[in-house]
Amino acid sequence: MHLCLLTNDLNGVVEHLKQDGVVIEQELRVGLDYNSQAWVRDPDGNSIELMQPDEKSPQRAKARAVAGQI
After folding, report:
1. Nearest CA to 25 among 9, 35, 14, 36?
2. pLDDT at 60
3. pTM above 0.85, yes or no
4. Which partner for 52 in 10, 22, 57, 68 could form a disulfide, CB atoms 3.0-4.6 Å apart?
């Protein structure tokens, strides 16, 4: 289990965290769902996924579907 935080500028977020001395557990990569992701840990050791959704990802499609229902 983990927490996932979304961003529109994952490269910028990762660079900012590195400059602040945060260890990037898993460097930026594109996942099977087309989303860009990187992983860090909080001070208690909990995994945090940093994700930039891609236009063709299932998560983006779901978000659009939910937004259309509001």
Report:
1. 14
2. 84
3. no
4. 10
